[in-house]
């Protein structure tokens, strides 16, 4: 059962050369009770995809096609005005990128919480405060103290937790975290990840975590979706994907992660640079010029995301076994050409 | 060659409501960086590691201890004379976005220091273009494509390479990399790290690597020493691999436990642990600085301040022992011998040292 | 053929600033209008007086209504109003430009040096700035007018400029202070680049859009100030300009009572209004002119 179903979502941005897709035909399910990790490099469209789950793609962007079905709300792309505002926060809790810096420095956390309650027309503000305190306490914060604090009185990790409190205080069943650990050091990252897992389990949420750090996400996610050039190129159960990556990009991404175990010399940085809106390939596979397995067909036809296992999907012309066992070989592009 | 002995830095903050407060950014840091060597400092944010980097590049002053660069004790020199030595030590900033002037092209960014350097060394100034191209090639960029660009037209990884190229324009002998990869996409980090390792091997440049991510410290090269720094104090030191595989100090163990485990490929270490509380610098800690957060703290920890001792030695150092050493230093006794034994091995500042296996274990390795 | 192509390419690449300027201005119609207004007034100030030469007075038609001969009518003395507006613009614009020049020269230099040096230099320069900020410009001008006549725009511009740079200096200093902490400035210091280089090549381009904006805004203020001085009659009339026109329309022509002097009153007012509008519309383009990042987003 899925809490959120994204189907064929296309999000475009207006540029000097016309409307270009930042997300192209993406389909993704957020399953009830599971943490889904969405991994990709900067410019892969992962944040755009996440924002479109709030139907909040900033100008000059627009959702150009596809549907986002949220359980109990309906197709989010068709909502507007008050209904949409209710869904944001009410059904979907969102913790923004750099949410450490997204609190108002002039108001206490408690006041900002009341503002949130009023704008969502919560009748019982006392209950709201009580719930916030409870959430904060369960995340290892001193609820009373935090609500009376200003933003600058809290550390980065604490602000991140406050962000989660805000996202969940209206009983949202879907939690989206955009780069929740990027600006944090290792100890804070570990405790934030720990808390996300705990809150997720306690509240029976469907959680989506967007990150560029495949290592951090592997700690807590149940499922993994990998995004590249605006496309989801592979997804499936996390352990399966990490153990047996079937898309060359996933494989390269895992190999490019600095790890604390394993052979230092065996790790390889990803060659080339991630594409952006204007440089992404218009025809064929978007990854082909960085792909060590690329064959002729990759330049002509774009591989479709298809199921190849009961639980897994991939978008690649090359056989899964070739990718899995093949040596990384000589990548098509060496170094980091501009 | 850089030698630092007992570097301290203290800030006085004057708050109108909170009262005056003394912040110990660094509480006596020692290290030796041989030519072509590498030293890593790890610790959480606010532990003083950035201050250390700034001191080493001359952007910050220190108020105690000695800093010896190529045999010259810097605090004895006048500021103007010091510049020459600090010039040999170049910093690679954490944030490649603010480290490049947004209004200048790569060509202008590299051109000015190159021309300045050429004038100093007596080389033909007109050769700067070739030198710029050479440096960009060295850092793995294509000169023709990159030179006319503005910083915003480059990716994070490319920017960091330009930053490294700029640092190399003045022929430094030491590079300080302060969180040099933390703001770069994970997929691009290894490229930068292997570039740094390459510079060590090919140009003999030594490296001070400052980070919160222990995993990246493994990639900067062989023979590197790892210093674990907590609230301005080094609590454990040893060869990088040794500290990672058998950490002794509980703080090191907590830091290493926090490194994410790549599930499916790795399994969590059997002794994984975490701090019992969040960092609170306002509570006075007369004993061990880590005691309020330590999962293994004992009775002695709250009262006595431990100092660095070799792992495996019976005696555990205290402030009194340290006082003796300092006393010996003053009287001119033979301390170099003591230094040598300390620096050669794995040292820690804990009363209850116990090696624990906290980092992830490779799945393949475990079954084998 | 090939030669022309390379030539064209080299011309194009040698003038990226010009291309950037064109792009930034043509991005929005408001900016084009703004620039057109500014250029129009500048041309008016430079070339306008050539058409008229000496002020011709037609004593036979006082307060004449607009006609083919006198497009905007005549004033109480029989001078052509259009002619006065055109010739009066030169003084107003020259003064505003000169004072803006002085302001930017002092303000940017002092702001940058203070922000970069900090410490004693900063304190000294900022006390100087505070002093300048507290100089009451109006009384100073009144006193000075007893000694100088403000017939030449140089003197007026100098006095306005020298008393007016305080705000720009403060604004530039605060920008410089935050710039100083940026990585690229730390790097420049670490590389041992000269102070001159850091101030002129690293910092100046970064504060330029800010300074330019302050400058344009202060030009509006300067135009208001000088016209106001003449209008109030605090400075002896020694030339034709819009302020003098306003003064005479109100106090001699009785524009408040009789409609016949209305055009005489409105003509300079509309000019000031339109010029201000031009500057405000053009302000919008300044950020893009200096910021390579914005410049590109076509």
UniProtKB/TrEMBL annotation, chain A:
Q: DNA-binding as a keyword?
A: no
The name of this protein is ABC transporter ATP-binding protein
Q: Write down the SUPFAM superfamilies for this protein, in alphabetical order.
A: P-loop containing nucleoside triphosphate hydrolases (SSF52540)
Q: Which residues form the signal peptide?
A: none
Question: What sequence ranges are listed for the domain ABC transporter?
Answer: 4-254
**Could you say which protein family the record assigns here?**
Belongs to the ABC transporter superfamily.
The alphabetical list of record keywords is: ATP-binding, Cell membrane, Membrane, Nucleotide-binding, Transport
Q: Which CDD domains match?
A: ABC_NikE_OppD_transporters
| Its membrane topology | Peripheral membrane protein
Q: Which organism is it from?
A: Catenulispora pinistramenti
**Transmembrane domains' residue ranges:** none
As one GO molecular function, the record gives:
ATP binding
Q: Which SMART domains match?
A: AAA (SM00382)
Major subcellular site = membrane
UniProtKB/TrEMBL annotation, chain B:
Q: Which Pfam families does UniProt cross-reference here?
A: ABC_tran (PF00005), oligo_HPY (PF08352)
Any one GO MF term held by the record is: ATP binding
Q: Has keyword Cytoplasm? A: no
Q: What superkingdom heads the lineage?
A: Bacteria
Provide the protein name.
ABC transporter ATP-binding protein
Q: Which Gene3D superfamilies match?
A: P-loop containing nucleotide triphosphate hydrolases (3.40.50.300)
Q: Where is the signal peptide?
A: none
Domain called ABC transporter: residue spans? 2-256
TrEMBL record, chain C:
Q: Where does it live in the cell?
A: Cell membrane
Family as reported in the entry's similarity comment: Belongs to the binding-protein-dependent transport system permease family.
TM segment ranges: 32-52, 91-116, 128-148, 215-237, 261-283
- Which residue numbers delimit the ABC transmembrane type-1 domain? 89-281
Protein name, per record:
ABC transporter permease
Under Gene3D superfamilies, the record lists: MetI-like (1.10.3720.10)
Which keywords appear in this protein's UniProt record, sorted alphabetically?
Answer: Cell membrane, Membrane, Transmembrane, Transmembrane helix, Transport
Q: State the membrane topology.
A: Multi-pass membrane protein
Name the domain of life this protein comes from: Bacteria
UniProt-listed Pfam families: BPD_transp_1, OppC_N
The species this protein was found in: Catenulispora pinistramenti
């Amino acid at each position: 059962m899925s809490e959120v179903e994204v189907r064929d979502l296309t999000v475009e941005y207006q540029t000097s050369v016309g409307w270009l897709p930042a997300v192209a035909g993406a389909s993704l399910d957020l399953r009830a009770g599971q943490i889904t990790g969405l991994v990709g490099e900067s410019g892969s469209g992962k944040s755009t995809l996440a924002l479109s789950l709030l139907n909040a793609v900033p100008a000059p962007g627009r959702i150009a096609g596809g549907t986002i079905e949220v359980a109990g709300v309906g197709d989010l792309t068709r909502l507007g005005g008050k209904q949409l505002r209710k869904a944001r926060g009410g059904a979907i809790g969102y913790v923004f990128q750099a949410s450490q810096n997204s609190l108002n420095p002039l108001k206490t956390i408690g006041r900002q919480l009341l503002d949130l309650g009023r704008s969502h027309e919560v009748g019982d503000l006392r209950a709201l405060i009580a719930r916030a305190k409870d959430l904060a306490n369960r995340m290892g914060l001193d609820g009373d103290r935090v609500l009376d604090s200003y933003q600058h009185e809290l550390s980065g990790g604490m602000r991140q937790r406050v962000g989660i409190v805000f996202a969940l205080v209206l009983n949202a069943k879907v939690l989206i975290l955009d780069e929740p650990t990027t600006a944090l050091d290792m100890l804070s990252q570990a405790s934030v990840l720990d808390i996300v897992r705990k809150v997720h389990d306690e509240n029976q949420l469907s959680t989506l975590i967007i990150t560029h750090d495949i290592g951090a996400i592997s700690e807590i996610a149940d499922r993994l979706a990998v995004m590249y050039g605006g496309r989801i190129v592979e997804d499936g159960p996390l352990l399966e994907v990490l153990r047996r990556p079937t898309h060359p990009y996933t494989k390269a991404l895992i190999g490019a992660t600095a790890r604390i175990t394993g052979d230092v010399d065996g790790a390889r940085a990803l060659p080339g640079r991630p594409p952006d809106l204007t440089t992404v390939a218009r025809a064929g596979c978007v990854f082909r010029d960085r792909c060590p397995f690329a064959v002729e067909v990759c330049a002509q036809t774009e591989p479709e995301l298809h199921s190849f296992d009961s639980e897994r999907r991939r978008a690649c012309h090359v056989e899964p076994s070739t990718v899995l066992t093949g040596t990384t070989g000589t990548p098509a592009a060496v170094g980091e050409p501009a | 060659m850089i030698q630092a002995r007992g570097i301290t830095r203290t800030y006085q903050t004057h708050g109108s409501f909170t009262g005056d407060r003394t912040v110990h950014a660094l509480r006596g840091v020692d290290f030796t960086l041989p030519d072509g060597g590498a030293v890593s400092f790890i610790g959480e944010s606010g532990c003083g590691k950035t201050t250390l980097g700034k001191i080493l590049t001359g952007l910050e002053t220190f108020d105690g201890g000695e800093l010896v660069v190529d045999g010259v004790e810097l605090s004895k020199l006048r500021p103007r004379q010091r510049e020459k030595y600090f010039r040999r030590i170049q910093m690679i900033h954490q944030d490649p976005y603010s480290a490049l002037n947004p209004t200048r092209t790569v060509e202008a960014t590299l051109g000015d220091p190159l021309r300045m350097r050429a004038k100093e060394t007596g080389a033909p100034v007109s050769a700067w273009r070739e030198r710029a191209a050479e440096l960009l090639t060295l850092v793995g960029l294509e000169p023709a494509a990159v030179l006319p660009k503005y910083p915003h037209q480059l990716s994070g990884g490319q920017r960091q390479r330009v930053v490294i190229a700029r640092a190399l324009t003045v022929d430094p002998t030491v590079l300080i990399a302060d969180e040099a990869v933390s703001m770069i996409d994970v997929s691009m980090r290894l490229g930068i790290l292997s570039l740094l390792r390459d510079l060590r091997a090919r140009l003999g440049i030594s490296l001070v690597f400052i980070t919160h991510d222990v995993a990246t410290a493994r990639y900067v090269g062989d023979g590197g020493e790892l210093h674990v720094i907590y609230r301005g104090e080094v609590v454990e030191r040893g060869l990088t691999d040794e500290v990672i595989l058998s950490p002794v100090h509980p703080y090191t163990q907590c830091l290493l436990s926090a490194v994410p485990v790549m599930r499916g490929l790795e399994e969590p270490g059997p002794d994984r642990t975490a701090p019992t509380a969040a960092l609170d610098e306002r509570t006075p800690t007369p004993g061990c600085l880590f005691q309020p957060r330590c999962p293994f703290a004992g009775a002695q920890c709250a009262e006595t301040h431990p100092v660095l001792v070799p792992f495996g030695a019976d005696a555990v150092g205290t402030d009194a022992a340290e006082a003796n050493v300092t006393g010996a230093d003053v009287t001119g006794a033979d301390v170099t011998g003591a230094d040598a034994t300390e620096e050669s091995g794995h040292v820690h500042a804990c009363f209850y040292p116990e090696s624990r296996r906290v980092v992830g274990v490779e799945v393949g390795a475990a079954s084998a | 053929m090939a030669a022309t192509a390379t030539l064209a390419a080299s011309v194009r690449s040698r003038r990226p600033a010009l291309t950037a300027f064109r792009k930034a201005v043509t991005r929005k119609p408001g900016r084009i209008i703004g620039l057109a207004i500014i250029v129009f007034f500048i041309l008016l100030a430079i070339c306008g007086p050539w058409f008229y030469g000496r002020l011709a007075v037609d004593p036979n038609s006082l307060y004449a209504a607009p006609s083919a001969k006198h497009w905007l009518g005549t004033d109480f003395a029989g001078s052509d109003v259009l002619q006065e507006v055109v010739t009066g613009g030169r003084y107003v614009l020259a003064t505003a430009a000169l004072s803006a020049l002085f302001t930017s020269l002092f303000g940017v230099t002092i702001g940058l040096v203070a922000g970069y040096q900090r410490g004693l230099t900063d304190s000294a320069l900022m006390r100087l700035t505070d002093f300048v900020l507290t100089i009451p410009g109006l009384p100073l001008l009144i006193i000075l007018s007893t000694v100088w006549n403000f017939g030449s725009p140089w003197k007026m511009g100098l006095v306005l400029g020298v008393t007016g740079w305080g705000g720009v200096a403060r604004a530039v200093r605060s920008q410089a202070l935050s710039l100083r902490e940026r990585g690229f400035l730390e790097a420049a210091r670490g590389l041992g680049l000269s102070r001159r280089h850091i101030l002129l090549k690293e910092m100046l381009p970064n504060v330029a859009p800010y300074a330019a904006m302050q400058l344009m805004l202060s030009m509006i203020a300067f135009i208001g100030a000088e016209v106001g001085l003449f209008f109030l009659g605090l400075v002896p009339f020694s030339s034709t300009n819009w302020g003098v026109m306003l003064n005479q329309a109100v106090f001699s022509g009785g524009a408040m009572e009789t409609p016949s002097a209305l055009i005489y009153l409105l003509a300079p007012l509309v000019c000031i209004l339109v010029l201000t509008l031009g500057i405000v519309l053009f302000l919008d383009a300044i950020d893009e002119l200096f910021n390579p990042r914005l410049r590109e987003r076509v």
